[in-house]
Write a structure and sequence with these properties.
This protein is mainly alpha-helical and about 190 residues long. It has two domains: about 1-110, Orthogonal Bundle (Rna Polymerase Sigma Factor, Chain: A), CATH 1.10.1740.10; about 145-193, Arc Repressor Mutant, subunit A, CATH 1.10.10. The protein is built from eight helices and no strands. Helix 2 packs across helix 5, helix 3 (about 50-65) packs across helix 4 and helix 7 (about 165-170) crosses helix 8. It is globular, with a radius of gyration of 18 Å. About 20% of the residues are buried. The model has no long low-confidence stretch (mean pLDDT about 80).
């Protein structure tokens, strides 16, 4: 599939039944969502859950709810995924005790014994998964090395895709302060290579 295909086109293709389109969306947004989930989980939750488990839950919910998604502008799909990720994290926090947690309906993937099952979104080779995992680990390491306000401004603006005004509101700063902070944060981030 063409790498230049827009998210809007991929969403429409998935809505029309093209399962491969959702796999491309998954690949396109997986790394950004992994970083976002990692930082939103917090230490206590990360001891009980793997980021990859929550990531899969986000994409499972997105695939089942995609008919209700309304495309508004570039970046709106990622912001929608980020909101789903927030809900998944909250749900995980509410159900920390796995013994009391109801697993819900099991989704069985396609196999020889279950030819009518769902096609797994993640069809990567083990070596590619390892390489991408290393890339995400490097990214997380560099972000962890930044001061908290630098990391926060990068996450809000570059990963969540919020406008400067929205970042300023979340951080309790002016737009000018956020713009300068982001500039300095990105400069420091590049120096960490």
């Amino acid at each position: 599939m063409d790498a230049q295909t827009t998210s809007y086109e991929l969403i429409e293709r998935f809505r029309s039944g093209d399962q491969e389109a959702f796999a491309v969306l998954y690949e396109r947004y997986r790394a950004r969502l992994t970083v976002l989930i990692h930082y939103r989980m917090g230490e206590a939750l990360s001891q009980r859950y793997e980021v990859s488990d929550l990531l899969q839950e986000v994409f499972l919910r997105a695939s089942t709810d995609l008919q209700r998604f309304e495309y508004q502008a570039p970046g709106s799909f990622f912001r929608w995924l980020a909101r789903i990720a927030g809900h998944v994290i909250v749900d995980a926090a509410r159900h920390e005790d796995r013994a009391k947690r109801d697993g819900g309906v099991a989704v069985r993937f396609r196999s020889e014994s279950n030819p009518g099952g769902h096609e797994p979104v993640d069809s990567l080779t083990p070596s590619r998964v390892l390489r991408e995992g290393e890339d995400v680990a490097r990214l997380l390491s560099r972000l962890d090395a930044l001061p908290e306000d630098y990391r926060t401004v990068i996450l809000l603006s570059k990963f969540e895709g919020l406008a400067t005004a929205a970042v300023a509101e979340r951080m309790g700063r002016t737009r000018e302060q956020v713009a300068l902070l982001l500039h300095r944060a990105l400069k420091r981030y590049r120096e960490l290579t």
